[in-house]
C-alpha cells in the first residue's frame, strides 16, 4: 500500500484503482433519480400535492367577496364614470347613446371650473366649506383620539373598561339620531344658549348664522371686505374664500369630532398595546420625560396607525353627507354645503346625473392627492418616493 505523508504535497498521494471504482459506484448509487448528475438524465419534479393546490384553494375562498365587490363596487364606479361624460337625466338607458343620452365629453367637468353659472358657484362654495371643515376636523379628531387612547391605556387609571365604552359609544350611535339631538341642543332656545345665558352671553342663532368665523375675526379688528380681497378665483372673490367655517358649520364640526374620535381611539389603543415593553423601560431608564417619550418613542413607533387614522379621517370628511342632510341641507346661504351633498342634490334633485357624477369624481381625485401628500409627509426622508412619480426606491 502507498504510504500517505501528511507533510508531503497533494500530488504525492496515490489512490488505488479499486478505491476509485468503489467511490464512483457509491456516488452513483447515492444520487437520487431525477436530480442533476444522475445517470438517468434531468427530470422536473411535479408540483402536485397539498402545497401545489394552495393557490386554487385561496382563490375559491376569496371568490365570493371578489364577485360581490365587482358587482356592487367596481361595476357601479365604471358606470358612474361613463355617466359623468354624458348628459343623462335618468329617464332612459344611460348606455343608449342617441336615444335620450348624448356623450358630452368633458363638459360636465369644465362647467365646474371654467363656466360661469350656479353650478360652479355652488361647487366652489362647497369645496371652500369642506376645506375648512377638513382643516379643523382631521387634526382635532386625531389629537383627541390619541389623547383618549393614552388616557385609557394608562395602568394607573381605574375603570378603564368603563371609559373605553363611554368614549366609544357615540361612534356606534346613529349619526342621524345624534344630528337630530344636536338640532335641539343648539336651537335658539336650546340647552346651549340657555347655559350661555347664565354667564350673560347672548348665544347666536346657530343654524341661521351664515357669518364665517374668519370674517368675524377680521371684523373684530376693523377689516371688512377690503380692496385687496376683491380678486376673483374660480368665480369667487378672495374675501369669500377667506370666510372660514360658518357658525352653523362649526356645530357640524363639533358633532363630527365628538362622534368619530372613539373609533380612532380604538385604533391607537391597539397600536399602543403592541409596543414592546423593553423600549418603554429603556426610555424610562434614560430619564426621559413624558413629553420626550411621546415625541421620540411612542409617535415614531405608532406611525402606521397614525397614517391609517389620518387617511380615514381625510376620506370621511371629504365625503360628509348625513350630518349636512339632517342639519339644514346646506343652509344657511349654502355655508354648510358639501360636495357629497351637492352631488346628491344635483343628481336626484335636479336630475343632472352627469354633473353630479363629475362632482363625485373630482372629490375622488382630491382625496387621492391629499392621501398621497400626507403619506409623503409621514414617511421617513430616506424612504420617500417621488410625490407623484411612478418610480422610486425599492
UniProtKB/TrEMBL annotation:
Composition bias of kind Basic and acidic residues appears in: 1-10
Outline the extent of the ABC transmembrane type-1 domain: 127-374
Keyword Membrane in record: yes
Cite the residue spans of the region called Disordered: 1-50
Record key words, sorted? Cell membrane, Membrane, Transmembrane, Transmembrane helix, Transport
- Localization per record: Cell membrane
Q: Name one Pfam family in it.
A: BPD_transp_1
Quote the PROSITE patterns the UniProt record gives.
ABC_TM1
Query: What membrane topology term does the record carry?
Result: Multi-pass membrane protein
Q: Where is the composition biased (Low complexity)?
A: 25-36
Identify the main location. Answer: membrane
Give the transmembrane ranges. Answer: 57-85, 131-153, 165-186, 247-272, 301-321, 351-371
InterPro entries this protein is in? ABC_transporter_permease (IPR051393), MetI-like (IPR000515), MetI-like_sf (IPR035906)
Q: Of which family is this protein a member? A: Belongs to the binding-protein-dependent transport system permease family.
Name under which the protein is recorded: Sugar ABC transporter permease
Amino acid at each position: 500500500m502507498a504510504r500517505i505523508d501528511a507533510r508531503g504535497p497533494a500530488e504525492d498521494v496515490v489512490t488505488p484503482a479499486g478505491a476509485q471504482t468503489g467511490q464512483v459506484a457509491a456516488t452513483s448509487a447515492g444520487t437520487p433519480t431525477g436530480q442533476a448528475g444522475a445517470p438517468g438524465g434531468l427530470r422536473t419534479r411535479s408540483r402536485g400535492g397539498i402545497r401545489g393546490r394552495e393557490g386554487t384553494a385561496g382563490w375559491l375562498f376569496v371568490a365570493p367577496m371578489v364577485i360581490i365587490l365587482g358587482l356592487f363596487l367596481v361595476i357601479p364606479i365604471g358606470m358612474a364614470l361613463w355617466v359623468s361624460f354624458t348628459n343623462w337625466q335618468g329617464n332612459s338607458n344611460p348606455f343608449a347613446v342617441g336615444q335620450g343620452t348624448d356623450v358630452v365629453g368633458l363638459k360636465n367637468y369644465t362647467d365646474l371650473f371654467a363656466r360661469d353659472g350656479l353650478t360652479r358657484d355652488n361647487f366652489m362654495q362647497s369645496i371652500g366649506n369642506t376645506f375648512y371643515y377638513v382643516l379643523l376636523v382631521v387634526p382635532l379628531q386625531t389629537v383627541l383620539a390619541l389623547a383618549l387612547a393614552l388616557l385609557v391605556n394608562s395602568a394607573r387609571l381605574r375603570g378603564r373598561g368603563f371609559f373605553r365604552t363611554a368614549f366609544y359609544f357615540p361612534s356606534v350611535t346613529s349619526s342621524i339620531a345624534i344630528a337630530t339631538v344636536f338640532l335641539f341642543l343648539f336651537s335658539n332656545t336650546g340647552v346651549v344658549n340657555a347655559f350661555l345665558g347664565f354667564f350673560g352671553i347672548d348665544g347666536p342663532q346657530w343654524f341661521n348664522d351664515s357669518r364665517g368665523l374668519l370674517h368675524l375675526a377680521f371684523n373684530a379688528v376693523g377689516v371688512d371686505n377690503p380692496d385687496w380681497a376683491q380678486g376673483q378665483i374660480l368665480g369667487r372673490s378672495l374675501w369669500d374664500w377667506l370666510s372660514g367655517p360658518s357658525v352653523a358649520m362649526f356645530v357640524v364640526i363639533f358633532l363630527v369630532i365628538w362622534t368619530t374620535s372613539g373609533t380612532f381611539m380604538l385604533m391607537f389603543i391597539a397600536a399602543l398595546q403592541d409596543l414592546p415593553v423593553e423600549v418603554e423601560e429603556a426610555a424610562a431608564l434614560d430619564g426621559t420625560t413624558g413629553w420626550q417619550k411621546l415625541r421620540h418613542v411612542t409617535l415614531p413607533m405608532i406611525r402606521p396607525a397614525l397614517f391609517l387614522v389620518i387617511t380615514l379621517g381625510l376620506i370621511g370628511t371629504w365625503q360628509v353627507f348625513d350630518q349636512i342632510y339632517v342639519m339644514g341641507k346646506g343652509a344657511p346661504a349654502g355655508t354648510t354645503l358639501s360636495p357629497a351633498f351637492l352631488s346628491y342634490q344635483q343628481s336626484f334633485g335636479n336630475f343632472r346625473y352627469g354633473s353630479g357624477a363629475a362632482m363625485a369624481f373630482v372629490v375622488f381625485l382630491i382625496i387621492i392627492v391629499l392621501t398621497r401628500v400626507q403619506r409623503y409627509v409621514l414617511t421617513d426622508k430616506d424612504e420617500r418616493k417621488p410625490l407623484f412619480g411612478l418610480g422610486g426606491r425599492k
